[in-house]
Design goal:
binds iron/sulfur cluster, 3 domains, 5-stranded mixed β-barrel, about 375 residues, alpha/beta, 9 helices, TIM Barrel
Length: about 375
């Protein structure tokens, strides 16, 4: 076990594994244990310790098969099946950036309280079961509420997904900041496409949009070039935020064309900034979708590109879906087994699904709840008053 950092903070000895997982052991235990055990042994022991996401400093819940938490049912981790040949694979939550438009309120957040990380074998075994229900052209799309590449076992995940019989395509989303050349070399031949979110080529504007001075647009540009050099296709995915990066779309297209993005898939996926209820709110007037599509049409004309994309442009089609375990209105008795992703939410397990339960009761409580959301096998329940 190699620690990327070891330091003391407050009452804890902190061990950072693979740059992402913080294992915090209270000094009072560490002092006693270190007389007898090595640091590696202390971190492996089932003694009092707390896991945190090193990027977000939030509590980190490790989801393993033994945890008893299923991988279907929540949008923060696991698998999402929206009834097509594309399965969303979410190995980790939490982000290294703080984009001012973030739809999942990542970075400096008012709403998120917990992050999750999923054991690779568990994730791939459950993925394979789901993929077996579908056609022989499954796309494994690695995304999540945050930056997927903070997952410390990404290469192992890609290697194992590649071995799932009916997987045809593997793609992932990234902001590019935690990808380096070594990772790109290791990913060559394993991943088909990276959707890279680049919202401005101007360093100052890009940092304003990313919400952090740590953002380095030259690094991200270099990542795009290196991915292409290693045979990995790139889709550039800027978020168009009116008043912030209006002039950048044309520049991103011209730069993307110059480096040759979009070899096998569309090269540009421009997204309209949408003010979501639980996302970050930019002080701007969002564009209506008809205005947005008009502007895309002008760029399409100018650059001879298709920018208004549909799932079919990526080979995505309907495919058998996992049956639902509950219906809206179902009344359940649920045991709360883990903290939820947001404040006022806990996780429960029933009928092979994980359910986000809106409650202030602690882990270990039993609550009566009503299922209020079932779309795409994502479950939310609210407790009675
Ligand atoms: S990179 Fe994505 S997840 Fe991270 S803060 Fe920006 S928009 Fe949110």
């Amino acid at each position: 076990m190699i620690f990327s950092e070891i330091y003391d903070e407050g009452r804890d000895k902190v061990f950072v594994m693979h740059g992402t997982i913080e294992v915090r052991v209270p000094h009072q235990f560490y002092a006693k244990l270190s007389r007898k055990y090595s640091d590696e042994e202390i971190v492996s022991l089932q003694e009092a310790k707390v896991l945190r996401n090193h990027y977000t400093h939030r509590e980190l819940v490790y989801i393993t098969r033994e945890s008893g938490i299923p991988l279907i049912g929540h949008t923060a981790f696991g698998l999402i099946d929206r009834g097509t040949n594309l399965i969303q694979v979410r190995p980790v939550s939490g982000c290294n950036l703080n984009c001012i438009f973030c739809s999942v309120d990542e970075g400096h957040t008012q709403t998120r309280k917990t992050d999750f990380i999923v054991d690779t074998d568990y994730l791939v075994e459950e993925f394979a079961k789901l993929a077996a229900l579908k056609s022989d052209d499954v796309e494994a799309h690695i995304d999540g509420q945050g930056e997927p590449f903070i997952y410390p076992y990404m290469i192992e995940l890609l290697q194992k997904l590649r071995k799932v019989p009916n997987v045809k395509t593997i793609s992932a989303q990234s902001n590019g900041m935690v990808i380096d050349e070594e990772k790109i070399r290791a990913m060559a031949g394993l991943i088909d496409r990276v959707n890279l979110s680049v919202s401005s080529l101007d360093q100052r504007t890009a940092q304003i949009l990313a919400g952090t001075k740590k953002y380095d647009v030259e690094h991200v540009k270099n990542v795009a070039v290196k991915l292409l050099e290693h045979g990995i296709d790139v889709l550039l995915a800027p978020v168009w935020v009116p008043g912030f990066n209006d002039g950048e779309m044309a520049k991103i297209i011209e730069w993307g064309q110059s480096i040759g993005v979009g070899r096998r898939y569309p090269g540009f996926g421009i997204q309209n900034y949408v003010r979501y209820q639980f996302g970050k709110k930019v002080k701007t007037k969002p564009m209506r979708f008809d205005q947005f599509f008009e502007k895309l049409a002008v760029l399409e004309q100018q650059y001879g590109l298709k920018l208004k994309l549909t799932p079919a442009d990526f080979g995505i089609h309907r495919a058998p879906a996992l049956p639902k375990a509950f219906r809206k209105g179902d009344q359940l008795k649920l045991d709360l087994v883990a903290p939820g992703r947001v404040h006022g939410e806990m996780l429960a397990v029933a009928s092979g699904r994980v359910i986000g339960v809106l409650t202030d009761r602690p882990v270990g409580s039993r609550v009566s709840a009503e299922i209020t959301r079932t779309t795409d096998n994502v479950y939310v329940a609210k407790t009675g008053s």
